[in-house]
Design goal:
Domain tRNA/rRNA methyltransferase SpoU type: 131-275
CATH class of the largest domain: Alpha Beta
Shape: elongated
GO molecular function: RNA binding; RNA methyltransferase activity
Number of domains: 2
Strand order of the largest sheet: 8-7-6-11-9-12-10
Number of helices: 12
Oligomer: single chain
GO biological process, one term: methylation
Order of helices and strands: EHHEHEHEHEHEHEHEHEEHEHEH
CATH topology of the largest domain: Alpha/beta knot
Protein name: RNA methyltransferase
Organism: Limosilactobacillus fastidiosus
């Protein structure tokens, strides 16, 4: 039995996460994030995230709850229990920013504590691990697309610098189709990463492959990369790319061969090609 609460207005304090707080405020003041759509919510639940509440449009209530119940039954995921499920009609929901972009039910969920970089690296698989590092990737859609590719193409974990977009922002997790709850990942302070990130990768036996153009850049299909036991693929900001220090301290600089006149791809597209070539698919 679901705990349904039918709304006549959006003024209650319990509705602040949906109505009056932006995602940064949710993160820093409430330690919450919003998951959007039954598929994303179900994957978060399956990964162990606890819901604070749901908000569902009345005309889609039966559909969204049926989708959630069906997915949770298939995956033997704990149900919603007595989690408050706020139900609002279309007229009320039009007051929400971005109403026309919604993809079904919304849920506020509690964040989980992320491991520090040392603990994260220590828990990576021992057999031919492949991880990705996202340095200053600020577009949530790109973050989401990278996570979706990482999940699909054999990347064991993702490290996100603190000056990147938050993988749990609604747009990121929606574009990722919930795979941000599937791939192990953690944050690293941007300054700490610059100071000692590459050296810590080296301490744990990883060789770093920075995606950048230099005189010594090798193609992503270079056979020497496949022979590396532990590989960290480092992707940079959509505009300026990786910091110079990251590139110079890396063991390889790698590139995707391009047609004449084109020197780069969007970071999300580049990640998919790099993960396809260098991910677990390539394990011998």
């Amino acid at each position: 039995m679901h705990n349904l609460i039918f709304l006549t207005d959006l003024v209650g304090n319990d509705l602040d996460p949906y109505v009056r707080l932006n995602e940064a405020q949710l993160f820093h003041a409430r330690n919450l994030f919003i998951a959007e759509s039954p598929k994303v919510i179900e994957r978060a639940l399956r990964a162990g995230y606890q819901p604070a509440s749901l908000l569902v449009e009345e005309k889609f209530l039966d559909r969204d709850l049926a989708d959630l119940d069906h997915e949770m039954a298939i995956n033997q995921t704990t149900g919603l229990g007595q989690t408050p499920i706020y139900v609002a009609n279309s007229e009320l929901l039009r007051q929400l920013p971005g109403y026309n972009l919604l993809r079904g039910a919304l849920s506020t969920m509690y964040r989980v504590e992320r491991p520090d970089l040392t603990s994260f690296l220590a828990k990576m698989p021992a057999d031919h691990p492949r991880i990705a590092v996202l340095e200053s990737v600020v577009n949530p859609a790109n973050i989401g697309a990278i996570f979706r590719s990482a999940a699909a193409l054999g990347i064991d974990g993702v490290i996100v610098t603190s000056d990147s977009a938050d993988p749990l922002y609604r747009r990121a997790s929606r574009v990722a189709m919930g795979t941000v709850f599937q791939v192990p990942w953690t944050y690293v302070d941007a300054q700490a990463w610059q100071a000692k990130g590459i050296s810590l990768l080296h301490q744990y036996g990883y060789q770093a492959a920075a995606m950048a153009l230099r005189h010594n850049t090798v193609s992503i299909d270079d056979s020497q990369l496949d022979k590396v036991d532990k590989l960290a693929i480092i992707l940079g900001s959509e505009g300026p790319g990786l910091r110079e220090k990251t590139i110079t301290e890396s063991d390889f600089t790698i590139k995707i061969p391009m047609t004449t006149g084109v020197d780069s791809l969007n970071v999300a597209a580049a990640s998919a090609l790099a993960f396809w070539e260098l991910g677990k698919r390539q394990t011998k």
